[in-house]
Specification:
The complex is a heterodimer of chains A (331) and B (320).
Chain A lengths: L20 H6 L15 H11 L1 H27 L36 H37 L1 H16 L2 H11 L4 H11 L2 H14 L3 H8 L4 H37 L11 H8 L8 H29 L9
Helix pairs in contact in A: 2-12, 3-4, 3-12, 4-5, 4-7, 4-8, 4-10, 4-12, 6-7, 7-10, 8-10, 9-10, 10-11, 10-12, 11-12
Chain B lengths: L1 H28 L3 H9 L5 H10 L6 H13 L5 E2 L4 E2 H36 L4 H15 L2 H15 L19 H35 L2 H8 L4 H29 L3 H7 L4 H10 L3 H29 L7
Antiparallel strand pairs in B: 1-2
The chains are: A mainly alpha (331), B mainly alpha (320).
Chain lengths: 331, 320
């Protein structure tokens, strides 16, 4: 996926480095002392730093609320008595067939089809979160695999993978994505697949760089001396040591995937209607909001913005927590 | 340097070659030759016409010959013929390109100027109130989907504040050659939209890079020589810190020239991005393929230019 300025993929700033060597010192045997001294793993240190981060707590709280909204959407829908795709031709539209403003019956107003926007925004969270997480899992899995192989094997394999990444990056993400969505019919899994596969280049580059420096470490040399093959070294010895980095990077890929999905749906090649989707809802609203139907645009746009913002803030905090050298930069 | 150039350009050609195969496979092999011919013929295509097109595109020949023919045309600068509009793709692209170039270059000036300025201020006054403001704004706009920002700006400036800001038209594009003032006015909101969402990455990159550079020994040396802080930052700091920023700018501009799809879509600017979205709606394959391969060329060329600039600025790069 190419980092077009629109779907921003390039993360400025330093990637976190939590090297495996720190783990050794933390689990060392401790001298018997009067007071029990607890060993603290880098993970625990990171978690403790994260707990002290106020922005991270707010972001995590927001994400929890969004996840709850997504999970409870059907319950809330049945409690209010409005389905996500149910059209209220008589009560949800005014005499001229226009959307209704927010009221006691329709908390966020209605859309141009007389559907309840509140319920649709709640249901939209499901698509955004599920696509965001699934696509990120795909890109992280692919990226880690290619990064490990390229970094460890080097040589021709590395060059081939580097060129593959160049090719994927050469065609702007949205151009490939809408083209693929065009030749095969758009749908949920296609969107997950396209967004996930095209983003593999970012974790691949990070993991490759990390592996190139890690493979010179003594423990890799020791493993090789013991007769371990490349597969074992890559997936048993090296993989656990790049996991921290992958988590940091993955947490920053989720908001990117969410925006990518919303952009595809906004362009009409994402999740097909009538499924409630924030990008598609914003697209629907684009013909209405100027004429005074502000709620139609406001609520889905706000939901999307809050979600990406929360994930980006949390991702930044996770990076800072795992990389003490950079900690506090964005406090 | 010559060897570096040859190797770098060789790589670029290889990537473009692979990209052309990818685009070719996606469109020719994916839907199959019959479907391609039918799509090219358009809705009113008679069987006779479909046969003609199949022959004209060499679709009755083996795949590799089809590919060679297509690439042969590309190498001569011929992007293909659009049966839907009855025009050559070159004409369609030539019509769309000025709008995209106007949008991208104007926005690039804004995002680079703001990004570098805010990044440098943030780094020099690290942890000040100003730094916090800039980094928070960067995070905010970094998270902002382009279409959300675009519609928000349109809503605020072209509708709500219409009485005050009468000069903000809410959409469409006026060519520079038709009316320079209207061209400028029509592009203000699109420029702001594209620049604000892109600048965030520049603020952060410049800040990190500048902080790194300011920690270097030679900066301490410069300061201990008694050089003024202003001069230390401008002459020694900025030059070193801006190298990664230049790289990012080159790549971003290259990518954006291939079509800023969402900004063009939101503001109704008939550039390459808008054209490709229209083409997808109309199932207009030659346009999609032409713009896709053109976009790839922009990115690859931008990459080469950036690498050469980098090698000139930093001789160590040439060795890798």
């Amino acid at each position: 996926m190419s980092s077009s300025p629109e779907v921003r993929g390039r993360h400025a700033g330093k990637p976190a480095v939590t090297s495996g060597s720190a783990a050794g010192t933390a689990t060392m045997e401790l001298p018997p002392a009067a007071k029990k001294i607890e060993g603290r793993s880098p993970w625990r240190l990171a978690l403790e730093r994260l707990r002290k981060d106020r922005a991270a707590k707010v972001a995590a709280g927001t994400i929890t609320v969004i996840v709850l909204c997504a999970l409870l959407a059907p319950l809330i829908a049945s409690w209010i008595g409005h389905g996500p795709n149910q059209q209220f031709i008589d009560t949800g539209l005014d005499a001229e067939g226009n959307p209704l403003a927010p009221s006691g019956t329709f908390f966020f107003g209605t859309d141009s089809n007389g559907r309840d926007l509140f319920i649709r925004v709640l249901y939209g969270a499901r698509i955004s979160l599920v696509v965001g997480v699934l696509a990120t899992l795909i890109s992280v899995a692919l990226g880690t695999f290619f990064g490990l192989v390229a970094g460890y094997l080097g040589g021709v394999v590395d060059s081939l993978i580097a060129r593959l990444i160049d090719v994927v990056l050469s065609i702007p993400f949205l151009v490939i994505a809408i083209s693929i969505a065009y030749i095969s019919h758009p749908g949920f899994w296609l969107v997950v697949f396209v967004v996930g596969v095209l983003a593999f280049t970012y974790p691949a580059r990070i993991v490759r760089g990390q592996v190139i420096s890690l493979k010179e470490k003594e423990y890799v040399e020791a493993a090789r001396a013991l007769g371990a093959g490349p597969m074992r070294i890559m997936f048993i010895d090296l993989l656990p040591n790049v996991v921290a980095q992958v988590i940091v990077y993955g947490s920053l890929l989720i908001p990117l995937a969410i925006v990518s999905e919303a952009s595809l749906s906004f362009l009409g090649v994402g999740i097909p209607p009538p499924t409630a989707d924030w990008g598609a809802m914003i697209n629907d609203a684009s013909g209405y909001y100027q004429a005074g139907f502000w709620w139609y645009l406001l609520f889905p746009a706000l939901a999307l913005l809050i979600t990406t913002l929360a994930f980006n803030i949390l991702g930044d905090s996770v990076r800072d927590a795992m990389d003490p050298r950079g900690a506090g930069i964005y406090e | 340097m010559t060897r570096f150039l040859i190797r770098r350009i060789g790589q670029a050609i290889l990537v473009l070659f692979a990209a052309s195969i990818a685009v070719f496979l996606l469109f020719f092999v994916g839907p199959g030759p019959n479907q391609v011919a039918r799509t090219f013929a358009g809705r009113l295509g008679t069987p006779q016409r479909i046969l003609e097109i199949k022959h004209a595109l060499h679709l009755d020949q083996p795949l590799y010959l089809q590919y060679l023919h297509w690439v042969g045309n590309l190498l001569q600068g011929n992007l293909g013929f659009d049966y839907y509009k009855g025009q050559s793709v070159n004409t369609v692209v030539a019509q769309a390109l000025p709008a995209t170039v106007s949008l991208v270059l104007g926005a690039a000036i804004l995002w680079i100027a703001y990004g570098v300025f805010s990044g440098v201020v943030s780094a020099v006054r690290s942890r000040s109130l100003l730094d916090r403001g800039f980094t928070t704004a960067a995070l905010f706009f970094y998270s902002m989907p382009t279409f959300v920002l675009g519609y928000t700006l349109i809503f605020i400036f072209a509708y709500e504040l219409y009485r005050v800001t009468k000069f903000f038209p809410f959409s469409s594009y006026v060519p520079l050659t038709t009316d320079p003032w209207q061209w400028f006015v029509h592009l203000i909101l699109p420029w702001l939209t594209l620049a604000m969402v892109t600048a965030a990455a520049y603020t952060r990159l410049t800040r990190t890079s500048m902080l790194d550079v300011l920690g270097e020994d030679y900066i301490r040396t410069a300061r201990s020589k008694g050089m003024s802080e202003r001069r230390v930052i401008r002459v020694h700091g900025l030059r070193a810190a801006l190298t990664p920023v230049v790289t990012l700018a080159g790549l971003d501009i290259g990518t954006a020239l291939g079509g800023v799809i969402i900004t063009e879509q939101v503001f109704g600017i008939p550039g390459l991005g808008w054209t490709i979205v229209q083409a997808i709606g109309q199932q207009d394959l030659p346009i999609i393929m032409g713009i896709a391969i053109l976009a790839a060329t922009f990115v690859v060329v931008a990459n080469v230019i950036v690498d050469i600039m980098y090698a000139v600025l930093d001789p160590r790069v040439r060795l890798h």
